[in-house]
Design a protein that fits this description.
Chain C: Pfam families: BPD_transp_2 (PF02653). The complex is a heterotrimer. Chain A is α/β, with parallel strands linked by helices. Chain A has helices spanning 3-19, 41-58, 79-91, 104-108, 111-117, 145-158, 172-187, 206-214, 228-239, 261-264, 284-297, 305-324, 330-337; strands spanning 27-34, 61-62, 65-73, 97-100, 121-123, 138-140, 163-169, 191-198, 219-223, 248-252, 272-275, 341-344, 347-351, 358-370, 373-385. Chain A folds into 2 domains: 27-143 and 283-356, Rossmann fold (3-Layer(aba) Sandwich); 146-275 and 362-385, Response regulator (Rossmann fold). In chain A, α2 packs across α12 and α6 (145-158) runs parallel beside α7 (172-187). Chain A starts with a helix and ends in a 9-residue tail after the last strand. Helices cover 70% and strands 0% of the residues of chain C. Chain C has 16 helices and no strands. In chain C, α3 packs antiparallel against α9 (182-204), α5 (84-100) crosses α12 (228-254) and α6 (105-127) runs antiparallel to α12. Classes of the chains: A alpha/beta, B mainly alpha, C mainly alpha.
Chain lengths: 394, 289, 349
């Protein structure tokens, strides 16, 4: 440790000791488990940046208490490691909140822990509906596949599309999406002519394109994990002439998440998605959020849905601390934010008292060029969408 | 009938891409007996160089391709001197695996540091976008180009290894290094040249295959199983074997995904097991070409 | 020229230099000191690092898995990148048994070991005729298929969401698995130590010596009337029991099983940990696992973005400067201390 660093640390500790003058003041710790390295490292980065933006805007203290975030890296879906890291956060770091969790199994793994330790767990992303059923201490500020897909399927049916095909990656979220799409689309008079489940590790999508073509569908509903698979799928869709043949391409907004747009390039143009957040969302609050982000980190390339998931998650955590007057009782803290409503960069949010998941506006967007940069441009809004999948999907 | 034709065309196109990316691994494994798990990393480096050359330096596609191959070979040659030379030979398999995994990790971390974790692309020239009609079937122009490039690579390698002085000396050195050295063949330089050939092919595959296997730092790890599968089925060191294996696996994979998409993964690996059961040494065991 | 597969079949022992064959091979497990040492260090860690039991538990369970790989690779010379197939099968078997029928931790372990052993025996009989790259590929393929089965059987395994809700009963009806992880750690450590004892027994038995003989010279075993393949299949099955138990142990201590437990990366990571520690020694598996996971934990905490680069350099360094793994370094040190007459520490530990 260099001398300057040590001095700085000593100074900081001393400063803290001074600042912590009033009785009862303490440091409240929040443990964040997310991918900070590995293929999904950009997610952890966006979480961390959003948290820092929130703290820059709202201060690091609530009442007399300082809120401190401790980050743990979990690069891949690995529930047993997720549990070990969370356990360490609780036992060693003595955190009062757990937060983060990008993948569903990693979030599910902590259910017994948060119940035993009586700690609220605010999920910034993991999007399978069933998670919040597993413990009353889960609160989620992201979205679910059902939440995004139901308005999309309704929209597609209203556009006069009669025959559609669903093509999803063969894993939990994909199957959720397929179920939501099929149920809703058929309820509104459409026919799902083929449901294609693509192996998760697929690299070549030409065979699926051939199948979509052969099915005679007018439109395709697709869901794949963001990243290489989505890119290859969108490219194959264009390259094999499906777009030229007039088949329309729809999907949940993970497909066209902002960090991937530059690589998707023109292949992404015209893809219509529904999602809870677009970086290009037109509101004063979002503009301020994006501007602050740019000011602090120099670029807004990483601002995407995971950013608002974390930003609003921190807001909920701050609110829980406020409601408890600095004392954290997990079950009571969760109880105190049920039904809470607020304005976020993505629009207005309410925590549904039953599902403890945010009810929010879902936007219909199309990928377009704005000032030479690809953005998800919002075309239509579907306000107050709940998690349709709560206690429904297996 | 039309379906069969469609599967065949897509399968061949996919297979050729697999061939072009994997054949370099077959060369290093078969001729130099190195299980080079960093092969994917070299391919990725080539792709990144091309992406940088095309997007940042504004080079045309062909120039970016040449730059990628040349720079990747230049950048990896010191590795042969410093690292690979110490682990040649089949007795060192574990050391090879460990060392090349370590090298892969370092390259992944380096690429991640330099270029960030997001996807990168290599913009295609106008000529290679759009589709080409093949009877009732439209295939992407880029794939048609890759098929042609794959065929050219196949013939070029065959000629190089079977018909040139270099090829003859190389095969002699591989079969009996001591004897070759006694005959005045400078095996060290020969190995260096072969290593360069392997990494050059890796870079070529990384660039040409980037449409299918998109560039991101974990490319190096994500697809290595696929490359190994092609080499194992083809028989290490066999150029024609690799081509046959890549085409067979490409067609099997395409057929499986088309006919029973939700069991596509089973289909591929079950076929792999069956093939390796029938031909445990690969289709073309051993011969260099 | 000959193919890689054939060359390896000639039996120059693919583990070759890394294993470092020696006539006194069976004595390289540090004699009788090694296992009590693991137990003592493990118990010391329990007192010294009471806040890190979650990590220590994962290390203990993973060490058992890496130990299973050592049986296969270090003693049978079978190069595999599919050992996680057995680990995952064991973990899922234990989890399914716990969720549906009986959540006693010992029954879960037994179920995991049984399932791991069975899958290893059946697949081993199918694929162990091959050598070298072909075998490597076959083991990978088996692993992928097991993972795909787990993904497909969502009703039983939870698919990609993971099999959650595993709530093991208290050990012997007395010690509950609480969030402080004391029970988990001591349970995992006990299973690991018993596993080491049994493994040592096996590798020193006539069967274990025969397996080592097969890996070094299959022709000779054939000549004296044994079937090399059947030895290897049995060894593979025994190692499968260990791997399955390690999977079950993870299911017991973490309460959830994910698809990652049968994945290729987990197999590859185990191989890295084993070679890092040193093959063919049993305790090398423990050292390698503790070193790798410990380093990962520290680096990931301080600098998650770059830990991969560090661990990569570390691996390269091991190959270049300590080819027998960390354990060989320890042994060499031991040899030096014991006096100049035993100048080659690698052969006598």
């Amino acid at each position: 440790m260099t001398r300057t660093l040590r001095n700085a640390l000593l100074g900081a500790a001393f400063g803290l000791a001074l600042a912590a003058g009033p009785a009862g003041a303490a440091t409240i710790k929040v443990g964040v488990v997310a991918p900070f390295s590995g293929p999904f490292g950009v997610v952890g980065k966006s979480f961390k940046e959003a948290i820092e933006v929130y703290q820059a805007e709202h201060g690091k203290t609530v009442g007399n208490d300082t809120v401190e975030f401790i980050y743990k890296d979990l690069d891949q879906p690995n529930p047993s490691q997720s549990k070990a890291l969370s356990q360490e956060l609780i036992v060693k770091e003595k955190v009062s909140f757990l937060a983060g969790y990008f993948f569903t199994p990693d979030a599910l793994a902590v259910a017994p822990l948060i119940d035993e330790a009586n700690i609220p767990c605010v999920i910034f992303n993991a999007a399978t509906s069933a998670i919040t059923e597993k413990s009353p201490r889960y609160v989620r500020t992201s979205f679910t596949l059902w939440q995004n897909t139901v308005p999309l399927a309704e929209y597609m049916a209203k556009q006069g599309i009669k025959k559609a095909v669903s093509a999803v990656s063969d894993y939990g979220p994909g199957i959720d999406g397929e179920a939501a799409f099929k149920t809703t689309f058929e309820k509104h008079g459409g026919t799902v002519v083929d449901t294609i489940r693509m192996p998760l590790k697929s690299t070549d999508f030409a065979p699926f394109m051939q199948r979509i073509k052969d099915s005679g569908a007018e439109a395709v509903y697709a869901f794949l994990p963001a990243g290489p698979a989505t890119l290859a799928f969108a490219k194959a869709f264009n390259d094999t002439g499906l777009r030229a043949a007039g088949i329309k391409f729809f999907g949940p907004g993970d497909l066209t998440q902002e960090p991937d747009l530059p690589a998707l390039g023109d292949a992404a143009m015209g893809i219509t998605t529904t999602f809870n957040y677009s970086r290009a969302h037109d509101s004063a609050m979002n503009k301020a959020f994006v501007a602050k982000h740019k000011e602090m980190f120099g670029s807004v390339d990483s601002v995407t849905f995971t950013s608002v998931g974390a930003y609003d998650g921190v807001h909920v955590i701050y609110q829980m601390i406020k409601n408890g007057g600095g004392k954290i009782d997990g079950a009571k803290a969760v109880e105190s934010v049920k039904g809470m409503s607020w304005e976020s960069p993505r629009g207005s949010l309410t925590i549904d008292p039953d599902s403890r998941h945010v009810t929010q506006t879902i936007y219909l967007r199309t990928v377009e060029k704005v000032d030479g940069k690809l953005e998800n441009v919002e075309k239509q809004a579907f306000p107050k969408q709940p998690d349709y999948g709560y206690k429904l999907a297996k | 009938m039309e379906t069969m034709f469609g599967i065949a065309v897509d399968g061949v196109a996919y297979g050729m891409i697999l061939f072009i990316i994997s054949v370099g691994l077959s060369v290093t494994l078969g001729l130099m007996r190195v299980v080079n798990l960093a092969h994917g990393a070299f391919a990725m480096v080539g792709g990144y160089v091309a992406s940088y050359a095309a997007q940042e330096a504004g080079l045309p596609y062909a120039a970016a391709l040449v730059a990628a191959v040349a720079l990747t070979v230049l950048a990896t040659l010191p590795l042969e001197r410093l690292l690979y030379r110490r682990i040649y030979g089949s007795a060192n398999e574990l050391a090879q695996v460990l060392l090349t995994i370590g090298l892969t990790f370092v390259i992944v971390a380096g690429i991640n540091y330099l270029f960030g974790p997001t996807l990168k692309r290599i913009p295609l020239p106008e000529l290679l976008t759009g589709t080409v009609e093949l009877g009732p079937k439209a295939i992407p122009a880029h794939r048609a180009f890759v098929i042609a490039a794959g065929a050219a690579t196949l013939l070029g390698l065959w000629w190089l290894l079977e018909r040139t002085d270099f090829g003859i000396r190389l095969r002699a050195a591989v079969d009996d290094p001591a004897m070759a050295a006694a005959l005045g063949i400078r095996t060290e330089r020969l190995y260096l040249a072969t290593f360069a050939l392997g990494t050059g092919l890796a870079a070529l595959g990384g660039v040409l295959g980037a449409e299918l296997l998109p560039l991101e730092p974990y490319y190096a790890i994500r697809y290595i199983v696929l490359f190994l599968a092609v080499v194992a089925v083809g028989g290490a060191g066999s150029i024609f074997g690799s081509a046959a294996a890549a085409l067979a696996l490409g067609i099997v994979d395409t057929a499986g995904k088309y006919l029973i998409p939700s069991f596509g993964e089973f289909f591929f690996y079950a076929a792999l097991i069956l093939i390796l059961f029938r031909w445990p040494h690969g289709f073309f065991k051993g011969r260099t070409a | 020229m000959t193919s890689v597969a054939e060359r390896d079949g000639k039996g120059d022992g693919k583990a070759g230099r890394m294993t470092g064959r020696t006539p006194l091979a069976a004595r390289r497990d540090l004699g009788w000191i090694g296992i009590p040492l693991v137990a003592a260090v493990g118990l010391a860690a329990f007192w010294l690092l009471p806040d890190d039991l979650a990590l220590l538990t994962r290390i203990a369970a993973s060490a058992l898995f890496v130990l299973s790989l050592d049986l296969v690779l270090g003693y049978g010379g079978i190069a595999t990148l599919g050992q996680a197939a057995m680990f995952g099968t064991g973990a899922y078997a234990a989890g399914i048994v716990a969720v549906n029928w009986n959540n006693d931790p010992f029954i879960m372990l037994a179920a995991g070991g049984l399932a791991g052993g069975l899958i290893a025996l059946t697949t081993g009989a199918l694929i162990l005729h091959a050598r070298g790259l072909t075998l490597l590929m076959l083991t990978i393929a088996v692993g992928q298929i097991v993972q795909e089965v787990a993904n497909k059987a969502r009703d039983w395994t939870g698919g990609s969401d993971g099999l959650s809700g595993i709530d093991p009963a208290p050990v012997l009806g007395m010690f509950r698995f609480d969030m402080y992880g004391r029970t988990s750690y001591l349970f995992a450590l006990a299973v690991l130590v018993v596993g080491l004892l049994v493994a040592r027994r096996i590798v020193r038995s006539p069967f274990g010596l025969a397996c080592r003989g097969v890996s070094e010279d299959p022709l000779r075993i054939s000549a004296i009337g044994g079937s090399p393949k059947s030895y290897l299949v049995v060894l593979y099955g025994v190692a499968g029991v260990f791997a399955g138990m390690a999977g079950a142990l993870t299911a017991v201590t973490s309460g959830i099983v994910g698809l990652d437990s049968a994945g290729f990366p987990w197999s590859a990571e185990a191989l890295v940990m084993l070679v890092l520690g040193g093959t063919g020694r049993l305790y090398g598996a423990v050292i390698g696992t503790a070193a790798f996971m410990g380093i990962h934990h520290i680096l990931a905490a301080s600098d998650p973005f770059h830990w991969m680069g560090f661990i990569g350099l570390f691996l390269i360094g091991i190959v270049l400067f300590l080819p027998g793994g960390i354990a060989s370094g320890v042994e060499r040190l031991g040899g030096l201390l014991r006096g100049p007459s035993q100048n080659n520490g690698e052969d006598r530990a």
